């Protein structure tokens, strides 16, 4: 590197800073500058691709870690104490000794941090050294380099199944259509393939010939958004959006290779910007805990004040200087007031452990353990996806035991979000698809539930069902029987790979199928090309973003090989042969006559791609609704064969393959609530727009009035059945209109400012005056055990709310299905258009509730009330003047269903309930629309389902099924809460009990802050002898067995509200600690008074009996003893004796003011020592033992002690 | 279960520990266990209590206050003056045999040997015989580490300086003749103090080790001349010094002064008769409202006389028995549900 003046360096640094901060970046290729020094590189200001997620460096670990740790208040308290100890007037111990506790705690934390950082370092190094291909101008080809060598402006080649090293702008792919598929599982967990298109679209791309400048926005963390354009030398701008960006961390699939231009590298990539690490929340218990720590501080100050005051009085009572008062070097005693002032601080040092600093470390350890147990629970493990429960927030486990309100999403949370096409309505005629319903009903039966696999290949479906729906029942029994047979005869040598679950199969409606086949059996598509039925199914097949992948394409997927899922039950494996047996032979007779012959599943292939037979097609849909529609279209013979950005091929029932040119795709957004695809019909050459979307939007534009109304009626009927509805519409666009529109569209796409709005405007512009074709009803089935879980949660005193974007009818239906609403419930339906109506409803209902409760006849019975409210009304109810009334009403409701709510409303509801009622809330959801709600609640739970991972990313815990909530809350929540609450209370007790021994001694040593226990032993006592048992208690105690907790959900109520950890419990424990320390101090005192006992011999039985009392106290609290308990408890006692004996034997002059030499040994030869220890322990523990166990022997043993102490005290 | 490992790599281990299903024992104490348990514990405690009380009662203790704060008492003249080696004597009469072995204690009241700064005011290394600490005593001894002429004080510190310096001789008068009761001063300190914790520097004669140092301000004689009669009882391993250096836990304490030598007439203890204690009164206590006393006591396995422990055991034991009786009555009346 050549020498550069410092000024130039500074200037360069400033320029770099500006370049990075700029809203827009201009990037050019590095290739012309290859081999030049760094100062000449155009993109030198942007970070390289090497990442560093470590917090510390090896050299500066200690100072940086200390700096980090001293940010905690607790550690500062420690440092303050150490500093006090170094002031000669104040010190209580040798200054060095005061350093021990803080050193131990700091080094423990530092060790933990270092280990975590080392793991991060290792994974960084692994990532940085991953191989990748970078284009080199010298070698005229892509050469292998490491990830860390990638720089902004490089050209990187990625090949199939490789992970993308940086954010690349896709310039070229091996695919002739310029498409590259990526899987974003690493980034957001979504496993469906996403399609990305190359920007420039030159088929022959040479990196060296790239001479444009890429202008792009500043890096941000939005994974679904990118703005930029490539400016060619001729000033032509080509827009580039997220659809051309390959994100770091994604995997290339189904594409041989692709070349991209590095836009963002290293820490500026979207995946790194999204990687914010685990989140920290403060739990309710911790907030309570801090108040109690404050009480401890007050207690400490009071005790120190008493000490200082006592010292003052004691000194003042001295007529002359006695021989035992040591004057300072000056020879003159200080004034008593000054010495007492010093004494106050000395007392703080002496009694410091009253503030349980080690409690914070212990809580952290216990929570790590609790998370270990939760994540290792096999009941919360999902076989199907091979996923455990994930704990993302590390420190709110105990909040799980205090939940009072659950806010749940419906779709994908209560339901499976596996969509099944159920019914449709075309041009005002309803096709109920009874056959399909029957088939699904069969599927629901328990024996069929065991995930039967159907091979798509061998199913000429239409043939086996009678077309007469009256005969359906007969068919059903028949079909059912034969199914069972096939299961039994199924043999293992099947090749069922790439079969899909039965749910995706649709049995066509007889009448509809007939109709379709009649239409298509004629000289199809030429004569009757405008037939609405054809259009309807074409729309289903085309209007989506489903990606077709070949069964033959290898995908590295860990989890979803269907074969592996089912190996555990031999019955389930169905062979191809048995599939064929499945068709009852007699069934086909009647079918032949209906003219279904042309509709063979294996038509003579007209296309030149013989591989594309329908049996090895696999649809990758972003939303399950789309997949359901495509499968439905397929069932009627409209098979989506392939999709590229520019074309869609559909095979018609006649076997003819139509290649539609796709002119544009107007993607779904929540404002328009619809999506459209603009295609050019291959035969008629018309520009056709197919649109699907939510009913309310589409019907407004409906063409013929009567069809619209009839369809609307059908839609209402579907919604009542709990189906999700979609409307399908089309529009023929004239060429002139299209030309004009496409110019607008292009401009909008290339815009940087206001791009979203412009793009949306163009979409809305086109989606006008649509012709309604029909509607579909898709069923979303309830997840396993949902009613059972809701029932249990309800018994546990948790109120369950459902917030959904669906229609009220759908939501109510699901509400009944999952047991949220019951038949005898009083369901209040709130749907008000005006504010005033809303007010009236609220007032009337509240009045009624009041009257009902006031009625003496209704003392014992409470009417179960449920509320159904829609989004519009909710908005009014949440307005400031109605809010209180609304909250008052919902307090009386057993269940609340909010329909048609937006994500923002969801979070609003959660916030309102949380703040107004001061309750613990939990929100559970699976989709992006639940993210707000999940973040607003005390605990957010994400369900890793079909709708991607955004909810999971935002959540504190991620589960795979709603039913897991039951064990998570009722068992783990309860355990985590009671364990931690009891441990914290015990910790306070322990410290107070031990410290008070020293405090009582002050009354007998002139308040001079003398300790009668060796300092080292005192420190050991807290750090080693009595630290492990409470942690074990917090980790492993089981007050109630899991079976009991699941069987009697009411037990969960102990944690709600104030729970176990309440004011009285805390103070009862503190009082108990005072009592016990009094006993522990005064038994030896009365025994040894007026004797020749020396100080440390006097302290030894106290220390020993304090150990016994503290450990025995814990044993009273422990509800179930395992081997681990015994080992740790006995181990602690053994450790005490071994360490103390060894220390007393070794330390002759090591610890000057105190001299523990041979003291425990001599005490242990003395029978009095044992008599004192026994008496102190028994007397100290007798009250607690009596109360706890007389209560527990009365049969209340399922409840725990501290609570009854509270009751016990409050009754007197 | 035949499972391919890769298919369920995330599957948690199904062990008793991770699933929190370790075999556990739940201490459910039914009345059937608790009541007999309490009776047994109660009876055991009563037994121990009785034994302790009987033993404690059998111990004879004789306490004689000689502070001299009231005018009639023998040492009142000494207590009022500041004369060194002021002599006074105390008479007492034993009507029965004082069972041996008899221990001779001196006791101090309102004397805070447990005062924190007082306790720190010594130099363990010096007392361990470390000669370098002779010339430069630890600062913890301050202000008793150097005298006014900057000479190091050995042994330094407040504890040593304030050493108790009254001396006693015990005489018995039998039919007019007075003879000394031999007092045994050997082994009154802790064995570990005498042999391990405290050491004289290995310099002979001992006096040379103390060259260049001065005796503590309040001391009459330097450390190497503490016991003229026994050369091995000098320096830091002087028994009286060792006893004093072991600080008392409470402000009212006694310290062992001598044992009555169990030989001749005194084989069985102190026989009945008239005794006189001649006191060399040096230690001032009246200034801080202290008191001095002489205590004779014999010891048992439980040390000195103490009724507290016996009574406490009796009370707790009876409480247990009473509680179990109450529980029995309640139990008999109501039949707890979990007893079925």
UniProtKB/TrEMBL annotation, chain A:
Region (Disordered) residue spans: 465-501, 554-611
Keywords annotated in UniProt: ATP-binding, Endoplasmic reticulum, Magnesium, Membrane, Metal-binding, Nucleotide-binding, Translocase, Transmembrane, Transmembrane helix
Membrane topology type: Multi-pass membrane protein
Record-annotated P-type ATPase C-terminal domain positions: 952-1185
Cofactor: Mg(2+)
Active site: 409 (4-aspartylphosphate intermediate)
Regions crossing the membrane: 289-314, 341-363, 983-1003, 1015-1036, 1066-1088, 1095-1114, 1126-1148, 1168-1185
Gene3D superfamilies referenced in this protein's UniProt entry, alphabetically: Calcium-transporting ATPase, cytoplasmic domain N (3.40.1110.10), Calcium-transporting ATPase, cytoplasmic transduction domain A (2.70.150.10), Calcium-transporting ATPase, transmembrane domain (1.20.1110.10), HAD superfamily/HAD-like (3.40.50.1000)
Sequence positions that bind Mg(2+): 409, 411, 926, 930
Alphabetical GO biological process terms: phospholipid translocation
PROSITE patterns found in the cross-reference section: ATPASE_E1_E2 (PS00154)
GO MF terms, alphabetically ordered: ATP binding; ATP hydrolysis activity; glycosylceramide flippase activity; magnesium ion binding
InterPro entries: ATPase_P-typ_cyto_dom_N, ATPase_P-typ_P_site, ATPase_P-typ_TM_dom_sf, ATPase_P-typ_transduc_dom_A_sf, HAD-like_sf, HAD_sf, P-type_ATPase_IV, P-type_ATPase_N
Domain P-type ATPase N-terminal: 42-97
Catalytic activity: a beta-D-glucosyl-(1<->1')-N-acylsphing-4-enine(out) + ATP + H2O = a beta-D-glucosyl-(1<->1')-N-acylsphing-4-enine(in) + ADP + phosphate + H(+); ATP + H2O + phospholipidSide 1 = ADP + phosphate + phospholipidSide 2
UniProt feature, compositional bias: Polar residues: 488-497, 560-572, 581-597
Pfam families registered for this protein in UniProt: Cation_ATPase (PF13246), PhoLip_ATPase_C (PF16212), PhoLip_ATPase_N (PF16209)
Keyword Magnesium: yes
GO cellular component terms, semicolon-separated: endoplasmic reticulum membrane; phospholipid-translocating ATPase complex; plasma membrane
Residues annotated as binding ATP: 409-411, 626, 668, 692, 724, 804-806, 900, 906, 929-930
Family, similarity comment: Belongs to the cation transport ATPase (P-type) (TC 3.A.3) family. Type IV subfamily.
Protein name (database record): Phospholipid-transporting ATPase
Organism: Astatotilapia calliptera
Lineage: Eukaryota, Metazoa, Chordata, Craniata, Vertebrata
Gene for this chain: ATP10B
Automatic annotation (TrEMBL), chain B:
Main location: membrane
Transmembrane segments: 28-54, 311-332
Keyword terms: Membrane, Transmembrane, Transmembrane helix
Source superkingdom: Eukaryota
Entry's localization field: Membrane
Gene Ontology terms: cellular component: endoplasmic reticulum; Golgi apparatus; plasma membrane
InterPro entries: CDC50/LEM3_fam
Keyword Transmembrane in record: yes
GO biological process: phospholipid translocation
Protein family: Belongs to the CDC50/LEM3 family.
Protein name (Swiss-Prot/TrEMBL): Cell cycle control protein
Gene: TMEM30B
């Amino acid at each position: 590197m050549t020498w550069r003046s410092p000024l130039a360096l500074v200037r360069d640094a400033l320029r770099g800073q500006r370049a990075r901060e700029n809203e827009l970046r201009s990037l050019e290729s590095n290739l012309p500058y290859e081999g030049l020094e760094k100062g000449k590189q155009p993109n030198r200001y942007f970070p390289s691709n090497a990442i560093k997620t470590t917090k510390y460096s090896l050299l500066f670990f200690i100072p940086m870690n200390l700096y980090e740790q001293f940010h905690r208040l607790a550690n500062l308290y420690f440092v303050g104490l150490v500093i006090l100890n170094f002031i000669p007037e104040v010190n209580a111990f040798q200054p060095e000794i005061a350093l021990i506790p803080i050193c131990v705690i700091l080094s423990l934390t530092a060790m933990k941090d270092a280990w975590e950082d080392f793991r991060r370092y290792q994974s960084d190094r692994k990532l940085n050294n991953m191989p990748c291909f970078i284009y080199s101008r010298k070698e005229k080809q892509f050469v292998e380099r490491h990830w860390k060598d990638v720089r902004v402006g490089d050209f990187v080649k990625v090949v199939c199944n490789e992970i993308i090293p940086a954010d690349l702008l896709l310039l070229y792919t091996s695919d002739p259509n310029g498409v590259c598929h990526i899987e974003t599982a690493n980034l957001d967990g979504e496993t469906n393939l996403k399609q990305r298109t190359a920007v420039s679209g030159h088929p022959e791309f040479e990196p060296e010939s790239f001479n444009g400048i890429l202008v792009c926005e500043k890096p941000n963390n939005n994974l679904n958004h990118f703005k930029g354009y490539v400016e060619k030398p001729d000033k032509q701008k080509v827009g580039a959006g997220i659809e051309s960006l390959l994100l770091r961390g994604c995997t290339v699939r189904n594409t041989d290779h692709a070349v991209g231009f590095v836009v963002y590298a290293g820490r500026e990539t979207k995946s790194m910007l999204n990687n914010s690490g685990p989140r920290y929340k403060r739990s309710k218990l911790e907030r309570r805990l801090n108040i109690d720590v404050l009480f401890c501080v007050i207690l400490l100050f009071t005790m120190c004040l008493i000490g200082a005051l006592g010292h003052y009085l004691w000194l003042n009572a001295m007529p002359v200087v006695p021989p035992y008062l040591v004057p300072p070097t000056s020879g003159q005693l200080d004034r008593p007031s000054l010495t007492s002032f010093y004494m106050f601080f000395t007392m703080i040092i002496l009694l410091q452990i009253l503030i349980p600093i080690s409690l914070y470390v212990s809580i952290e350890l216990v929570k790590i353990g609790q998370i270990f147990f939760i994540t290792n629970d096999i009941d919360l493990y999902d076989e199907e996806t091979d996923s455990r429960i994930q704990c993302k927030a590390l420190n709110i486990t105990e909040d799980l035991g205090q939940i009072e309100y659950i806010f749940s999403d419906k779709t994908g949370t209560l339901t499976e979000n596996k969509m099944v096409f159920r019914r449709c309505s075309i041009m005002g005629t309803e096709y109920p698809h009874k056959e399909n319903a029957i088939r699904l009903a069969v599927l629901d039966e328990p024996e069929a539930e065991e995930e039967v696999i159907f091979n798509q290949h061998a199913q000429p479906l239409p043939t086996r069902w009678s077309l007469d729906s009256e005969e359906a029942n007969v068919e059903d029994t028949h079909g059912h029987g034969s199914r069972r047979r096939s299961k039994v005869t199924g043999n293992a040598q099947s090749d069922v790979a790439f079969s899909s679950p039965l749910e995706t199969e649709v049995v066509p409606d007889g009448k509809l199928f007939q109709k379709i086949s009649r239409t298509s059996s004629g000289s199809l598509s030429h004569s009757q090309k405008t037939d609405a039925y054809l259009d309807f199914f074409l729309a289903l097949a085309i209007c989506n973003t489903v990606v077709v992948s070949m069964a033959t394409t290898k995908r590295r997927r860990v989890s979803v090989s269907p074969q592996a899922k089912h190996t555990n039950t031999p019955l389930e494996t169905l062979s191809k042969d048995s599939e064929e047996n499945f068709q009852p032979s007699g069934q086909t007779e009647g079918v032949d006559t209906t003219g279904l012959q042309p509709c063979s599943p294996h038509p003579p292939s007209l296309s030149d791609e013989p591989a594309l037979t329908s049996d090895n097609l696999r649809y990758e849909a972003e939303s399950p609704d789309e997949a359901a529609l495509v499968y439905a279209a397929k069932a009627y013979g409209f098979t989506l064969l392939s999709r590229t950005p520019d074309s869609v091929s559909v095979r018609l029932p006649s076997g003819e393959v139509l290649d539609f040119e796709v002119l544009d795709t107007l993607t779904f957004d929540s404002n328009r609530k619809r999506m459209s695809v603009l295609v050019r019909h291959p035969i008629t050459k018309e520009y056709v727009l197919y649109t699907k979307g939510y009913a309310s939007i589409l019907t407004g534009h409906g063409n013929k009035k009567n069809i619209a109304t009839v369809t609307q009626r059908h839609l209402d009927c579907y919604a009542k059945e709990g189906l999700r509805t979609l409307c399908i519409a089309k529009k023929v666009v004239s060429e002139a209109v299209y030309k004009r529109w496409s110019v607008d569209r292009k401009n909008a796409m290339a815009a940087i400012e206001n791009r979203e709005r412009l793009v949306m405007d163009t979409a809305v512009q086109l989606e006008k005056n649509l012709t309604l074709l029909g509607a579909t009803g898709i069923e979303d089935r309830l997840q396993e055990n949902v009613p059972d879980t809701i029932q249990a949660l309800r018994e546990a005193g948790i109120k369950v709310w459902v917030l959904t974007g669906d229609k009220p009818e759908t939501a109510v239906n699901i509400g009944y299905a999952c047991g949220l609403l019951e038949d005898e419930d009083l369901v209040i339906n709130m749907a008000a258009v005006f504010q005033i109506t809303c007010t009236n409803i609220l007032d009337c209902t509240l009045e009624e509730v009041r009257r009902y409760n006031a009625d003496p006849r209704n003392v014992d019975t409470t009417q179960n009330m449920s509320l159904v409210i829609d989004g519009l009304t909710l908005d009014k109810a949440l307005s400031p003047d109605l809010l209180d009334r609304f909250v008052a009403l919902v307090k009386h409701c057993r269940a609340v269903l909010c329909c048609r709510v937006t994500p923002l409303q969801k979070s609003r509801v959660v916030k309102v309930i949380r703040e107004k009622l001061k309750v613990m809330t939990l929100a559970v959801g699976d989709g992006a629309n639940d993210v707000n709600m999940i973040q607003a609640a005390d605990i957010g739970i994400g369900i890793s389902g079909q709708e991607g991972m955004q909810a999971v990313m935002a959540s504190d815990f991620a589960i795979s099924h709603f039913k897991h909530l039951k064990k998570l809350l009722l068992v783990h929540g309860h355990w985590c809460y009671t364990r931690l609450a009891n441990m914290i209370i015990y910790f306070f007790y322990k410290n107070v009990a031990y410290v008070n021994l020293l405090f009582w001694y002050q009354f007998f040593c002139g308040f001079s802050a003398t300790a009668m226990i060796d300092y080292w032993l005192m420190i050991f006592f807290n750090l080693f002898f009595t630290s492990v048992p409470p942690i074990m208690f917090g980790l492993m105690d089981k007050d109630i067995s899991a079976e009991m907790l699941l069987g009697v959900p009411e037990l969960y109520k102990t944690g709600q509200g104030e729970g176990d950890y309440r004011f009285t419990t805390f103070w009862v424990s503190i009082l108990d600690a005072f009592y016990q320390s009094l006993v522990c101090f005064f038994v030896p005192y009365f025994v040894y008074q007026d004797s020749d006992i020396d100080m440390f011999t006097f302290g030894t039985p106290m220390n020993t009996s304090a150990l016994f009392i503290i450990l025995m106290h814990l044993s009273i609290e422990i509800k179930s003893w395992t081997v681990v308990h015994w080992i740790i408890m006995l181990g602690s006692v053994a450790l005490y004796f071994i360490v103390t004996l060894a220390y007393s034997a070794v330390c002759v002059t090591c610890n000057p003011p105190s001299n523990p030499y041979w003291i425990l040994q001599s005490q242990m030869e003395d029978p009095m020592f044992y008599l004192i220890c026994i008496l102190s322990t028994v007397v100290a523990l007798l009250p607690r033992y009596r109360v706890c166990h007389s209560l527990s022997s009365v049969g209340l043993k399922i409840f725990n002690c501290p609570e009854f102490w509270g009751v016990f005290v409050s009754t007197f | 279960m035949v499972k391919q490992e890769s298919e369920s790599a995330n599957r948690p281990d199904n062990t008793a520990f991770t699933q929190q299903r370790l075999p556990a024992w739940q201490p459910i104490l039914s009345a059937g266990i608790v009541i007999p348990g309490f009776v047994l514990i109660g009876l055991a405690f009563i037994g121990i209590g009785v034994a302790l009380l009987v033993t404690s009662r059998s111990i004879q203790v004789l306490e004689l206050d000689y502070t001299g704060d009231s005018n009639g008492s023998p040492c009142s003249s000494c207590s009022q003056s500041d004369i060194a080696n002021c002599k006074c004597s105390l008479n007492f009469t034993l009507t029965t045999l004082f069972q041996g072995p008899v221990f001779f204690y001196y006791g101090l009241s309102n004397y805070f040997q447990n005062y924190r700064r007082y306790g720190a005011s010594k130099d363990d290394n010096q007392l361990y015989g470390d000669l370098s600490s002779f010339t430069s005593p630890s600062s913890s001894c301050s202000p008793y580490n150097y005298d006014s002429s900057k000479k190091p004080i050995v042994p330094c510190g407040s504890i040593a300086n304030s050493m108790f310096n009254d001396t006693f001789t015990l005489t018995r008068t039998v039919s007019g003749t007075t003879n000394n009761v031999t007092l045994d001063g050997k082994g009154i300190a802790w064995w570990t103090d005498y042999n391990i914790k405290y050491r004289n520097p290995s310099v002979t004669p001992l006096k040379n080790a103390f060259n260049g140092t001065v005796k503590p301000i309040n001391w009459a004689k330097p450390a190497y001349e503490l016991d003229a009669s026994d050369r091995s009882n000098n320096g830091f391993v002087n028994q009286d010094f060792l006893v004093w250096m072991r600080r008392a836990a409470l402000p009212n304490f006694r310290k062992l002064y001598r044992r009555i030598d169990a030989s001749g007439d005194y084989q069985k203890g102190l026989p009945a008769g008239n005794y006189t204690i001649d006191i060399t009164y040096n230690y001032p206590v009246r200034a801080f409202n202290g008191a001095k006393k002489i205590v004779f006591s014999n010891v048992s396995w439980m040390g000195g006389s103490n009724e507290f422990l016996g009574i406490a055991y009796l009370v707790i034991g009876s409480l247990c028995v009473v509680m179990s009786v109450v529980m029995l009555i309640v139990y008999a009346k109501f039949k707890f549900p979990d007893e079925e």
